[in-house]
Amino acid sequence: MELKEKILSSYVAFENGVNINSDLHEIRTEALQNFEKLGFPTKKLEAWKYTSLNSILKEDYSIFPDRDAAVELADVKKYFIHEIDSYKIIFVDGKYSSFLSNTTHDGKDICLLSAAFSKEKYKPIVEKYFNKIAKQDNLTSLNTAFATEGAFIHIPKNVEVEKPIQIINFTTGKENATMLQPRNLIVVEKNAHVQIIERHQNLNNNAVLTNSVTEIYTDTHATVDYYKIQNDNNSASLVDNTYIEQQKESTCSLHTFSFGGNITRNNLNFYQKGEHINSILKGITIIEGKQHVDHHTLVNHIEPNCESHQDYKGIYADRSTGVFNGKVIVEKEAQKTNAYQQNNNVLISDKATVNAKPQLEIFADDVKCSHGCTIGQLDDQALFYMQQRGIPKKEANALLMYAFANTVLESVKIPEVKKRITKLIADKLGVNIGFDL
Amino acid sequence: MSKYTEDDLREELKTKEYEYGFYTDIESDKFPNGVNEEIVRAISKKKNEPEWMTEWRLEAFRIWEQMEEPEWANVTYKKPNFQEISYYSAPKKKPKLNSLDEVDPELLATFEKLGISLEEQKKLANVAVDIVMDSVSVATTFKETLAEKGIIFMPISEAIQEHPELVKKYIGSVVPKTDNFYAALNSAVFSDGSFCYIPKGVRCPMELSTYFRINEGGTGQFERTLVIADEGSYVSYLEGCTAPQRDENQLHAAVVELIALDDAEIKYSTVQNWFPGDSEGKGGVFNFVTKRGLCETNAKISWTQVETGSAITWKYPSCILKGNNSVGEFYSIAVTNNHQQADTGTKMIHLGKNTKSTIISKGISAGKSQNSYRGLVQINARAENARNFSQCDSLLMGNECGAHTFPYIEAKNKSAQIEHEATTSKIGEDQLFYCNQRGIDTEKAIALIVNGFSKEVLNKLPMEFAVEAQKLLEISLEGSVG
Q1: Is residue B21 part of a domain?
Q2: Which of A332, A341, A343, A365 to mutate to test the interface with B (most CBs of B within 10 A)?
Q3: Residue A389: exposure state from Cβ atoms within 10 A (0-12, 13-18, ≥19)
Q4: Cβ(B86)–Cβ(B222) under 8 Å?
Q5: Could you tell me which of A265, A360, A308 has the C-alpha nearest to residue B407?
Q6: Percent of chain B scored above 70 by pLDDT?
Q7: Cα(B155)–Cα(B163) distance, rounded to whole angstroms?
Q8: What residues of chain A lie within 8 A of the CB of B400, using their CB?
Q9: Is the dihedral of CA A150, A230, A413, A416 positive or negative?
């Protein structure tokens, strides 16, 4: 059976497990109809021109993974940023793991979406925010239809969350291929401040397809600092849809580190709904083998006097393929916008491919918009210089690549995350140097 | 052209609606509206074409029937009804003349209004002009001078008769019939166009040029141009267009194919000033053009275009860099005003080793217009050491217009070096103030700044064209201050 058919037919079974007499269920049913109409994206769609999901849609995914999966802390500890104290919202096969997690309701809510759905006191927030900025496109609709669990983070005004929050989705799927639909809702109210680290990790070699949707609302003067660490194994694929709405004077920065996975597609959408907003989108991609990473970004400048900064660096080895599709829209009203977009790529193998499409759509005249995109190689002279001074070629190469990617790392605000990423880069490049020379 | 002064411009700006919007009444031999196999056969028969050409057209027509009109471009318009267009119209008196004296005086008057005095051009500009008026060439100059060097420059309809082996070999080799909707339509019904062949090692001594003109109301113009530069040759080709003012939309779907064989160089310059529609956006030409060049080893193709006209422009002059060390260049200025929409750019396909391409695109949008750059740079796996530099700058005038860039960059070779940059800006108030202070009025100041912004591209045009283009830019942006 085709995956789409299988998903559609399993909705009836899904309805048995949820409350079908709620507003939420109406949203779900509508989303399912939308998915039924649109189906999975194909390369014929402009937005999916360079990324084909065909190879991963062939798997016979189980849509409702086994409930009883359990993991030992010792097995998964290495996937946490464990050097620091943090709140943790951990899911195993799409189900909440209270044993691994550390949540709170003390002055703020760092808990579960299922709890927010079921408890009366969260109803106004869910009604106001859930599924409001998420696009009604194919995969987001699929997620909306089936999503029952994910992180729910609500930070009231003037609260600065004292430690980072880690959201990790583990997959054990011991017996078969697993499809997951995690859904996160993050509401950060006026003047609040939060740091979040998100990760998806497959723990065995069975196929996993994660179709994740995250909605983030950043109210006036709030600050959100978000890190996505994508270093999954080669049997895991990820479609990560993130929607961010910002109100005036807010700052949201989002770093995506893509070092692994089979096919990774990041749909990152920023909507600026006030003045003096700053949006920062950065990413480092270092992949090899047949890995595929696609960064699809959208920054929609709706109001005047806002800024956006994009900086994506990519290093591609073996037969890997990278895609960068960055779109900046400056609406008629958004005068004095300052939008900047940079995408630099290095190919280190003859078989690697990069497809870039930096796109600008500008309807206002008094704006500063620029984009730059390069594809090239490491500087031979710099390599030679280092080799002359006794640095082996491999290390010299790694140093150059690290320097190349460093503009993205510079703005990482959590030192432990920076350290972890640095280590991941070193591992990825097969060297044993700390880069903190 | 060269005696054009500021006073003239001021006068012109005052009186300007669409300067070249006149209509010459020449009795036309016109086909009934619509297109079908019969019409295609009839066009072919009318032109006395050999059997293979008729078949080629019919094949293209069958392909076209299967195709759908593309919708991906960033333009909106009412699609033309292809059955309401007459696909052939030719001036009835068909003069085939060697001297101008024999030409219909009414035609000559038309050309004078257009500013192409044949006499003058013959003497002063050293330009051979192959004038296409309503699809059939009526006058060809300098043919004999060119013939001495073995250069063939004639209407394609004659070339089909006289040099069938060349036409047969190259037509459709760069833009196949199946390429796209409009190219297929053009292949089926093309009326006429220019054919040019430069023999081995010959440097064409003069700029070759054609003036296209849409004349008969409701007649679609389907030009077909084929330029072949044989090994080691050089040619510079100019194309310029003006069209009469008309209330209904006119369709223009041309195909231009360039073939630069080993060590050859082709420079193709266009000034396009089709009727853009009036200030309400009514009327105006739909310009759906397929232009593509093929470079063999060490060959070079350079496209330069100044696009100021047309209601809708849909045009991507491209280079296929097939041979090693071949070079492709694209220099473009696209100006849109009022309700014009332009979706234009280029494709650089790098196949050979050490291939280089340069893209400089300047977009200027004013009024309520939309101006898009759409480009592709593709480095194939075997294209070692390919190099590309792209620069797309947009200038916005007023907050009702839009400027867009859609660059596609695809690299499959690690030795490729690609740089792309784009900026968007507006004319600074301080710049205008500076000019005003020095007694330059705002309109002139804008013209000055726009010319500075476009200079890199204007410099690439042949001298006579550059003057004309500069003038066109000023006229096109008239009334857009604010």
Answers
A1: yes
A2: A365
A3: exposed
A4: no
A5: A360
A6: 76
A7: 11
A8: 332
A9: positive
What is the distance in angstroms between the Cα of A43 and the nearest Cα belonging to chain B? Answer: 14
Q: CA separation (Å) from A312 to A143, A286, B267?
A: 27, 11, 37
Of A253, A273, A293, the last residue of a domain is A273
pLDDT digits (tens, 9 = 90+) for B19-77: 444 455 555 566 777 788 888 888 888 888 899 999 999 999 999 988 888 888 888 88
Best to test chain B binding among A354, A355, A374, A380 (most B CBs inside 10 Å): A354
Whole domain around residue A412: which residue ranges?
386-437
Which chain A residue has its CA at the smallest distance from B421's CA?
A372
When scoring A294, A325, A363 by the number of chain B Cβ atoms within 10 A, the one with the most, hence best to mutate, is A363
Q: Which residues of B touch A296 (CB under 8 A)?
A: none
Of the candidates B404, B405, B415, the beta carbon closest to that of A377 is on B415
Q: How far is A396 from chain B (nearest CA, A)?
A: 18
Stretch A133-156: mean pLDDT: 93
Q: What tens digit of pLDDT does each residue of B262-295 get? A: 999 999 988 887 777 777 767 778 888 899 999 9
Whether residue A374 and residue B418 make contact (CB cut-off 8 A), yes or no, is: yes
Contact A352 B72 (CB under 8 A): no
Chain A residues within an 8 Å CB radius of B404: 359-362
Classify residue B463 as exposed, middle or buried by CB count within 10 Å of its CB (0-12, 13-18, 19+): exposed
Using CB atoms, which residue from A357, A360, A377 is nearest to B424? Answer: A360
A349 contact residues in B (CB cutoff 8 A): 414
**Domain count along chain B:** 1
Kindly list the residues from chain A whose CB atom is less than 8 angstroms away from the CB atom of residue B401. Answer: 363, 365
pLDDT surpasses 70 at B117: no
Q: What's the total number of domains in chain A?
A: 2
Average pLDDT over residues A217-228: 96
Say how many CB pairs under 8 Å bridge A and B: 116
Interface residue A401 vs chain B (CB under 8 A): no
- Token representation of residue B7: 């006073």
> Within an 8 Å CB–CB cutoff, is residue B409 touching chain A?
yes
> Does residue B445 come out as left (phi exceeding 0), alpha (psi in the -120 to 50 range) or beta?
alpha
ipTM: 0.81
pLDDT tens digit sequence for B367-402: 888 999 999 999 999 999 999 999 999 988 887 888
Contacts of B373 by beta carbon, 8 Å cutoff, 6+ apart? B334, B344, B345, B361, B363, B392, B394, B404, B405, B406, B407, B422
Of A315, A379, A325, residue with least CA distance to A352? A315
Q: How far is CA B413 from CA A72, B34, B202, in A?
A: 45, 48, 36
In a domain, A282, yes or no: no
Establish if B281 belongs to a structural domain: yes
Residue A217, domain member (yes or no): yes
| Helix B442-458 / helix B463-476 crossing angle, nearest 10 deg | 140
> Is the residue at B98 inside a domain?
yes
